[in-house]
Amino acid sequence: MNILVLNCGSSSLKYQLISMENEEVLAKGICERIGIDGSRIKHTKIGCDTIIIEGDMPSHKDAVKYVVDALVSKEHGVIESMDEINAVGHRIVHGGEEFASSTVINEDVIEAVKKCSDLAPLHNPANLIGIDACKQIMPNVPMVGVFDTAFHQTMPAKTYLYALPYEYYRKYKLRRYGFHGTSHKYVSNRTAEFLGKDIKDMKIVVCHLGNGASVCAVDGGKSIDTSMGLTPLEGLVMGTRSGDMDPAIVQFLADKEGLSIDEINTILNKKSGVLGISEISSDFRDLENAIEEGNEKARLTMDVFSYRVAKYVGAYAAAMNGIDAIAFTAGLGENNAEVRADICSYLTFLGVEIDEEANKCRGIEKDFSAKGAKVKTVVIPTDEEMTIARETARLI
Fold it and tell me: Which residues hold substrate (predicted)?
């Protein structure tokens, strides 16, 4: 079975074609600048160099057509025809309380995802566009929706409720949902496998650290708490998102700066985080370079980031009444040894001890715990696409 995994953004489309016989990635790529001048596809046939195909992509339907054409191309394709695509797995960001697991996509599912769009206005509409594009291009190919929020539907009410009038939960389902669930599920399961343990017997904190970042407490394979909330804005300091703050700041800024709620929301989502503090960049790699050049504000920004992560790890150790392993994943978590070390330096009281030499790794599975450490610290590269493919194969 060949499964095409799609992750649609507002102007982009990431994809992988995976053969499920041996879980082998055959090809992958990204369509960029959909609906914008200069659209193109970066396509990689595994084992070959990445190629760039320029092309007009006014819609996601056009992008899907380019993806299929690339996959069946005689020069850089990996299948003979579109008929060899047996199913499509879609990443869908927000499933609300409607979906506690992945599901085969039908008209009822599409309507339910539409209803969740006000909870994820930047993501769900793009996900729906990708689904519609596939319906047009591949009308007879079954599709599965894999929800970022689904893994967190095991959180108890004491975790997900906000201390607001309960009527808002009744009326609007206003609560903590959490995100990055596909990543947290994959990494927590892989952590247990990597350490040779049964996940049902483990208490794991997963740190998904990238431009978007979240921490998740996984007890016995189930999410019991996570740092993102109703939206991805809550929680850690991120590339451009503020993370946790006093909600009274919204009114304060509105009064002092004469800003509307929409304008403040833009500031909190797109102009804050490490970009806001550093005044340099939202890209952690730029901050790393600035730190090497002696930039103190860049150093302060990274200190703020690491401190916030460590606070959440400590809180989740309390929430689970113990901790067996901390897993670092995503762009920063997988590749930045200094950030991992900074975070772990706050957690020695829990029994966290790291091997500095073992920690000098990038993008590979690695146990960098010191010998005899009570809490394992590991790097586990995330693979959301494989999780989506596995869920799709299971349901199809």
Answer: 91
Catalytic residue at 148? Answer: yes
How many other CB atoms sit within 10 Å of the CB of residue 356? 10
Cβ-based neighbours of 148, under 8 Å, separated by 6 or more = 91, 92, 93, 94, 95, 179, 180, 181, 182
Taking only the tens place, the pLDDT of each residue in 236-261 is 999 999 999 999 999 999 999 999 99
Rounded Cα gap, residues 179 and 212, in angstroms: 10
Calpha distance 392→214 (Å, rounded): 25
Beta bridge partners of 369: 354
Q: Would the annotation count 355 as a binding residue?
A: no
**Residue 7 annotated as binding site:** yes
- Local structure of residue 370 (DSSP, 8 states): P
Read off the pTM.
0.89
Q: From the candidates 37, 49, 148, 244, which is the catalytic residue?
A: 148
Beta strands in the chain (DSSP E): 2-8, 13-19, 24-32, 40-45, 51-54, 87-92, 103-104, 143-147, 203-209, 213-219, 222-226, 325-329, 366-367, 376-379
